[in-house]
Amino acid sequence: MVFDSLSGKLRDGIKKLLNSTGNEKIDEVISEIKQSLLEGDVDKQIVDKLIQKIYDDIKSKKGKGFVSRERVIDVIYENLVELLGTGENKIEINTVPFKILLVGLFGSGKTTTAGKLANYYKKRGYRVLLLPLDTFRPAAYDQLLQLSKQINVKIASQGKDPIQIINANSKSFTGYDVIIADSAGRDALDDALVKEIRNINTALKPNNVTLVIPADLGQNAAMQVKAFHDILGINSIILTKTDGTANGGGALTAAYISGAKVAFIGTGEKLNEIEEFDPKQFVSKLLGLEGLESLLKKAEEENIKINEESVKNVIKGEFSLMDVYDQYSNTKKLGPLDKIAGMIPGLSSSGKTKELVERQGENLGKFVNIMDSMTKEELEDPKTIDASRVSRIAKGSGQSEELVRELLEQYKKMKTLMKMSNNRQVQNMMKRFGIKL
User: Fold this and answer.
1) Under-50 pLDDT residues of the chain
2) SS3 helix, strand, coil % of the chain, rounded to 5?
3) How far does the chain reach from its first CA to its final CA, in angstroms?
4) pTM exceeds 0.70, yes or no
5) Which of 106, 253, 374, 412 could form a disulfide with 185 if both were Cys (CB 3.0 to 4.6 A apart)?
């Protein structure tokens, strides 16, 4: 997980809030979140504005009554997403050849990032060419050459200086969809580097200029982003060295200040360890709320069509066995029930709920068989199931009468628990993922 330290502190605050009763923990948790962001090197002025907005939003939702813990979490989530940017972050390949120029200082990880990007676009069907424009660092070409061999991507011929390399290879650009140029760095953005990258920019005419910066720069990232942006007009940012860093908030908010979008995050050293930056998904991970999104993505991969009416009924505690049958049938495709429950914030933390879910998980397949032997009337209104019907259902499903009665009892308990929990957070997150409740 990227930004482990920051994420751990934020998740602790969310857990504390979920396990509290009433409103007494809200101020304490928001104060802890503020401290976590400051320790994560997020700019103080931005943090102050963010926290004030969180309080204002909570106040507006509260009105004269009680504001739920889940609604507080939802407000925190929404404001953190807004901080990191809600617009389009992707580098869209909208012309061919599409030229990406990578810039940055020494130690930022440009060359490795060039290899990662080449691998990323190749896997998506693009013809990729690596352009080695770093003639300042002696080993730069050899490093890029080795990376190109690992991912089986073409690399352009080398030369004495960047402009010569561009001119010598420009005629071959039309044979590729994506050109990824790895430029030189320096210890600082000095006059020599400024002159070189300006000349490269003029000769290459890139469609996208991407700044590569390490996440551990902290608040110094803001100055670097601004300096490169003033010289070239940065289109995108790629964050490297994000695994385990404690002060990555500075690099993230540097992008916010500059207006440039973080397009990718490097999550490790391997060539496949790069991912598109999605503010919603990223904040969900930071807060430990990524479970529902993962479930919905897996449901899409398994071609599971979500019955929205059934989901609404279950969340409200107003469901029939027909709704249970619909959910159980899909659940079998998604994996163990206790694992799925653990992905829903707050649900698995309840002792009674956990025990009930574990018991249901053990008998999930049998329960589906039992419901297969029920009539539509029985599924829609379980109250109609008397002793004679229990006997018939048991024989038809090949299960014991005791297990049929257990299913009915578990159904009653789960219905009561869902009504009592009134999990507003689940409702709000479902809305974010397109299910209107």
Assistant:
1) 1-2, 63-66, 338-339, 342-353, 422, 432-433, 435, 437
2) 60, 10, 30
3) 31
4) no
5) 106
Q: Which residues contact 412 (CB under 8 A, 6 or more apart)?
A: none
Contact call for residues 55 and 242 (beta carbons, < 8 A): no
- Specify the 3-state DSSP secondary structure of 145: helix
Segment (H or E) for 263: strand 261-266
Kindly give, in sequence order, each residue whose CB lies less than 8 Å from that of residue 179, ignoring residues fewer than 6 positions away: 97, 98, 99, 100, 128, 129, 131, 173
Contacts of 152 (CB under 8 A, 6+ apart): 122
CA distance linking residue 127 with residue 291, whole number of Å: 35
The structure tokens 């990376």 sit at 147
> Strand order of the sheet with strand 128-132?
154-155, 128-132, 178-182, 98-103, 208-214, 236-240, 261-266, 274-276
Q: What is the pLDDT of residue 82?
A: 77
Task: Map out the domains of the chain as residue ranges.
Answer: 4-84, 98-277, 291-432
Cis peptide before 345 (omega within 30 of 0): no
Residue 196 · residue 101 · CB < 8 Å: no
167-190 burial, b if ≥16 CB within 10 A, otherwise e? eebbeebeebbbbbbbbbbbeebe
DSSP E strands: which ranges in 51-144? 98-103, 128-132
pLDDT given for residue 38 in this prediction: 80
- Asked whether 212 and 240 are in contact (CB, 8 A), the reply is yes
Give the integer Cα–Cα distance in Å for 104 and 81. 26
Q: How far apart are CA 282 and CA 288, in angstroms?
A: 10
419 C-beta neighbours (distance < 10 Å), count? 11
Domain 98-277 annotated CATH 3.20.20.70: no
209: helix, strand or coil: strand
Tokens (6 digits) for 93: 């390949």
| Residue 266 to residue 3: CA distance in whole angstroms | 11
- We find that the CATH architecture of domain 291-432 is Orthogonal Bundle (1.10)
Architecture in CATH for domain 4-84: Up-down Bundle (1.20)
| Neighbour count for residue 78 (Cβ, 10 Å) | 18
* pLDDT at residue 128 in the model: 96
Topology alike, domains 4-84 and 98-277: no
